[in-house]
Amino acid sequence: MPESTACPCGSGTPYADCCGPLLDGTTLPKTAEALMRSRYTAYTRMDAAYLTATWHPTTRRKELDLGDPVQWIGLKILHTEAGRPADNKGKVEFIARYKEGGRAHRLRELSRFQRHDGRWYYLDGRMEDEDSLTGDPDKRG
């Protein structure tokens, strides 16, 4: 990816100054949100090794199958709770948009992060049903 290309995570920062150094192991995420954004970017790049390495050891899957590639088209952070450099736990709620088979989808998740051995890890997440994000705005989650 060219250094001047905007980072897929939606930060508005060039990839080389945003998630690039995290994915290549040059730096570690300082916040839960930074880890969340870098994990989204890893999904856009089908980087299973990074996703596995940033998954908390107590909840990490033995194997990570990313399935067929999808076209990731955007990330929106809805809310963060804690997860700052001095915290040990944090939560990030987000919507990730993607296309699969020519059809647009939205995935909404509340992810939990935990610091382990001085490093942020993805612990787990609770996904909202995609149908709760479409249709009647009064029924959205």
Question: What attributes does this structure have?
Answer:
single chain; 141 residues; alpha+beta; Nuclear Transport Factor 2, Chain: A; 4-stranded antiparallel sheet; 4 strands; 16% helix; globular; disordered C terminus
Provide an overview of this structure.
This protein is of the alpha+beta class and 141 residues long. It has one domain: Nuclear Transport Factor 2, Chain: A (Roll), CATH 3.10.450.50. The protein contains three helices and four strands; from the N terminus they run H-H-H-E-E-E-E. A four-stranded antiparallel sheet has the order 1-2-3-4, with helices on one face. Strand 3 and strand 4 form a beta hairpin. It is globular, with a radius of gyration of 15 Å. 26% of the residues are buried.
Can I get a quick summary?
This protein is of the alpha+beta class and about 140 residues long. Helices cover about 15% and strands about 35% of the residues. Strands 1-2-3-4 form a four-stranded antiparallel β-sheet, covered by helices on one side.
- Strand order, biggest sheet? 1-2-3-4
Average of pLDDT: 89
CATH classification class: Alpha Beta
As a whole number of angstroms, the C-alpha radius of gyration is 15 Å
What class would the helix/strand composition place it in? alpha+beta
Number of helices, where a helix is a run of at least 4 consecutive DSSP H or I residues: 3
Shape: globular
Report strand %. Answer: 25-35%
Low-confidence stretches: 131-141
Instruction: Give a count of the beta strands, DSSP E runs of length 2 or more.
Output: 4
Summarize the helices and strands and which ones pair or pack:
Blueprint: H1 20-23, H2 32-44, H3 48-53, E1 71-82, E2 89-100, E3 103-116, E4 119-128
Antiparallel strand pairs: 1-2, 2-3, 3-4
